[in-house]
Design a protein that fits this description.
Strand order of the largest sheet: 1-3-4-2
Number of strands: 4
CATH class: Mainly Alpha
CATH architecture: Orthogonal Bundle
Order of helices and strands: EHEHHEEH
Structural class: alpha+beta
CATH topology: Arc Repressor Mutant, subunit A
Shape: elongated
Helix content: 40-55%
Number of helices: 4
Length: about 80
């Protein structure tokens, strides 16, 4: 799990805003983030399974304060690797 603090998030938002203003960003540069329940719904499994996959390092996740989020593309890539 990767943890971000407010300064890192602020810097990422500023960078993203600059890309948007310079028209150098496309739809693929904008990641879609999901919470645990949304990932469980996407994979059609329980929250316990999501927790186990996180602990095993098979499902990449990011921690922001006390929340855990997932990049949707990374979740789909992890699913393809397991198949």
């Amino acid at each position: 799990m990767i943890y971000y603090n407010r300064n890192n998030l602020l810097q990422n938002f500023i960078t993203m805003e600059n890309k948007i203003q310079n028209d150098s960003i496309s739809i693929t540069d904008n990641p879609i983030f999901l919470n645990k329940q949304e990932v469980a719904d996407l994979l059609n499994c329980s929250l316990g399974t999501i927790n186990n996959l996180m602990k095993q390092g098979k499902l990449p996740s990011y921690g922001i304060n006390r929340r855990v989020i997932f990049n949707k593309q990374e979740v789909l890539n992890a699913l393809v690797r397991r198949a």
